[in-house]
UniProtKB/TrEMBL annotation:
<comment type="function">
    <text>Participates in chain elongation of fatty acids. Catalyzes the reduction of trans-2-enoyl-CoAs of varying chain lengths from 6:1 to 16:1, having maximum activity with 10:1 CoA. Has no 2,4-dienoyl-CoA reductase activity.</text>
</comment>
<keyword id="KW-0276">Fatty acid metabolism</keyword>
<keyword id="KW-0576">Peroxisome</keyword>
<dbReference type="GO" id="GO:0006633">
    <property type="term" value="P:fatty acid biosynthetic process"/>
</dbReference>
<keyword id="KW-0275">Fatty acid biosynthesis</keyword>
<dbReference type="GO" id="GO:0019166">
    <property type="term" value="F:trans-2-enoyl-CoA reductase (NADPH) activity"/>
</dbReference>
<protein>
    <recommendedName>
        <fullName>Peroxisomal trans-2-enoyl-CoA reductase</fullName>
        <ecNumber>1.3.1.38</ecNumber>
    </recommendedName>
</protein>
<comment type="pathway">
    <text>Lipid metabolism.</text>
</comment>
<keyword id="KW-0521">NADP</keyword>
<dbReference type="InterPro" id="IPR052388">
    <property type="entry name" value="Peroxisomal_t2-enoyl-CoA_red"/>
</dbReference>
<keyword id="KW-0597">Phosphoprotein</keyword>
<dbReference type="InterPro" id="IPR036291">
    <property type="entry name" value="NAD(P)-bd_dom_sf"/>
</dbReference>
<keyword id="KW-0444">Lipid biosynthesis</keyword>
<comment type="subunit">
    <text>Interacts with PEX5, probably required to target it into peroxisomes.</text>
</comment>
<keyword id="KW-0443">Lipid metabolism</keyword>
<dbReference type="InterPro" id="IPR002347">
    <property type="entry name" value="SDR_fam"/>
</dbReference>
<dbReference type="Pfam" id="PF13561">
    <property type="entry name" value="adh_short_C2"/>
</dbReference>
C-alpha cells in the first residue's frame, strides 16, 4: 500500500484512478449532455500528460 501511495503522490490528481472514474467519463459521453462532442480524444490519466506526473 505504501508503494501505491508513492505512485499516487506523483500524479497531478494525487490519487490513482479507479474504475468508477472511467465509468463516469463513459456515462457522460453516452449522455445527451455530450451530444455535441464528436471525434474527440479524451485522456483520463489523472493529469499525467500535463507533465510532472508518474
Amino acid at each position: 500500500e505504501a508503494g501505491e501511495e508513492k505512485v499516487a503522490a506523483a500524479y497531478p490528481a494525487k490519487r490513482l484512478g479507479e474504475p468508477e472514474d472511467i465509468a463516469a467519463l463513459a456515462a457522460f459521453l453516452l449522455s445527451d449532455e455530450a451530444s455535441w462532442i464528436t471525434g474527440e480524444l479524451v485522456v483520463a490519466d489523472g493529469g499525467v500528460t500535463l507533465g510532472g506526473g508518474a
